[in-house]
Amino acid sequence: MSFVDVTPRVWQRLLDVRYGLACPCCGRWSPGEKAALELYGPLARRDIGPMTIGQIGQSLDGRVATISGDARDVSGPDGLAHLHRIRALVDGVVIGVRTALHDSPRLTVRLCEGQNPARVVIDPQGRLSDDAPVFADDGTRKFVIQGVDRARPTGVTVIRLDAHDNKFDPRQILVALRAEGLRNLLVEGGSITISRFLEAGLLTRLQVAVAPLLIGGGPQGLTMPSPSEKLSDAIRPDMRVFSIGSDVVFDCGLTAEAAAAKEPMHAIQGSAVR
């Protein structure tokens, strides 16, 4: 397991990588800083091509909320900071309408330096109210993907798709968002939404942040619509494990692009660049 140390110096390097101003492979770093570059560098790079990242926070027993639906403190403080760092490194964050209704997330970057990503809500029936925090007028691009004709406030872009059984094809969602210039996306919640992208083979990486608590009941984490009946058919990702302090992150590479993003951008590492 690698122990991550996100110092101000290494975080500034990662923001520079995100904007194409630096690389995540060169320089002199402490072991903890190197681990931070290994964890976040693949998410920040823009030279590999479009990427879709899934991230879920859960307890040791695989729960994402209590029986009553309380999900606010499933992740520890370092797990929350980790989530905000991912938001700062992507172009847009995608959530399902249930997450928007139950958790009232803002989807902003508050626990680290960085810009807010575009906010996207998948809302087939147009259930989310116009005064939801995710639609706040703060200068950030906002999208709602709907299967119905419903006007939204000024500043919220409506993407109209055809729904089948009250669901959208995840591939059509990605096509529509990338047509809007959102190339690197974080599918943040909820677990059903992340599972649908995973089962469709559309996630480049999946990060599972596990917090040291036992809930004992409540909604489970990833539950795919068509789970494997045999272990031989199960998804076996290229996995790395990182300690980020209060939580442990299982970083799962799922595609060739994920593998390529781990490789250094330059042939010679350890130079004095920045």
Description:
The protein is 26% helix and 20% strand. It is α/β, with parallel strands linked by helices and 274 residues long. Strands 1-9-10-8-2-7-3-4-5-6 form a ten-stranded mixed β-sheet, sandwiched between helices. It starts with a strand and ends in a 12-residue tail after the last helix.
- Residue-averaged pLDDT, rounded? 94
Broad shape: globular
Low-confidence stretches: 268-274
Question: How is the main sheet built?
Answer: 10 strands, mixed
**Sheet with the most strands: spatial strand order:** 1-9-10-8-2-7-3-4-5-6
Structural class: alpha/beta
* Rg computed from alpha carbons, rounded to a whole number of angstroms: 18 Å
Total helical segments = 7
Give the helices and strands as they follow along the chain. EHHEHEHEEEHEHEEEH
| Helix residue percentage | 25-40%
Alpha-carbon distance between the two ends: 27 Å
Count of individual beta strands: 10
- Quaternary organisation of the protein chains: single chain
Strand content: 15-25%
What is the element layout, followed by pairings?
Layout (H helix, E strand, L loop, with lengths): L1 E2 L4 H11 L12 H14 L6 E9 L17 H13 L2 E5 H7 L14 E5 L19 E5 L9 E5 L9 H10 L4 E6 L1 H9 L5 E7 L26 E6 L4 E6 L2 H7 L12
Which properties best describe this structure?
alpha/beta, 274 residues, 26% helix, 10-stranded mixed beta sheet
